[in-house]
Amino acid sequence: MTSVDNVENMPIKVRPATKKRSQIKAIAFRFKKNKLAVFGLVLLTVIFMISILADFVVDFDTAINQNMQVRLQPPSREHIFGTDQYGRDMFARIIHGSRVSLFVGLISIGISLAIGVVIGSTAGFYGGRIDNVIMRFMDVLLAIPQTLMAISVVAALGPGIRNLLIAMIVSSIPRFSRIVRSSILSISGQEFVEAAKACGTSDFRIVARHIIPNAIGPIVVQATLNMAATIIAIAGLSFIGLGIEPPNPEWGSMLSEGKAQMRYYPHLVVIPGIAIVLAVMGLNLIGDGLRDSLDPRLKN
């Protein structure tokens, strides 16, 4: 038989209580309850998948090669979305044009977000003169509308994907810097940050490991909503001839090319307009869903 001493010395296995749902799972659970947000996520996923697999869906040459014998045909079995005034297949141009709008928007948001996080975290964490100098410069840039700033940059550098990307990055940095700074200011004075400073943790580690992860919610929401505005800005620049150079397809340039024929051939502007609306609507629905899911007041 086991002695009493041995029984007392045996490790006691305590069955852990049911773990609470992790923060990410809780956010995903609340997001899934928002039907419109889920619809926006599905819609945007479909658009992204189509743009990624565009070369497998339809040949790129169909989108740029002219065939005047089939010009201005309405939607039919051979041409699902019809043809434009140069005989180019509208379906192929919509599919391949999505790459420009989505990927230029995605890359520009990613780069401007990274730069904005560095600028905003520096200003919010150190404060004082550094904060005043950085934020006053950001205020000057914020005083210029995003589209007007993008037009100025592209007009100075010239049209093209690279210059369009630069314009989108420059016009988006001030907004990210401002939202990151405000988020860090609301967190940097809390107890866990003061404890990290008292332990001698470096400033970079405090910002990267403790502050930014707790401020990620508003940043993600702002990135989602700002990408929708970026897609509209890209289409606007292409519409006025400062975006993608023809014959490369892009939704805004398709609207510009079809506006002269829209009275008799409305599909030239209706179809690219619907593509822009669907992409922007999907991003806005996702942004609204993330904002509600990340709101701590809605946890219960």
Number of helices: 14
How is the biggest beta sheet arranged? none
Name of the top-level CATH class of the domain at 50-58 and 82-272? Mainly Alpha
What portion of the residues fall into strands of 2 or more residues?
Answer: under 5%
* Named CATH topology of the domain at 50-58 and 82-272: MetI-like fold
Radius of gyration: 26 Å
Structural class designation:
mainly alpha
What would the principal axes of the Cα set say about the shape?
A: elongated
Reported CATH architecture of the domain at 50-58 and 82-272? Orthogonal Bundle
Low-confidence stretches: 10-20
Arithmetic mean of pLDDT: 80
Binned, the helix content reads: over 70%
N to C succession of SSEs: HHHHHHHHHHHHHH
* Number of beta-strand segments: 0
CATH homologous group name of the domain at 50-58 and 82-272: MetI-like
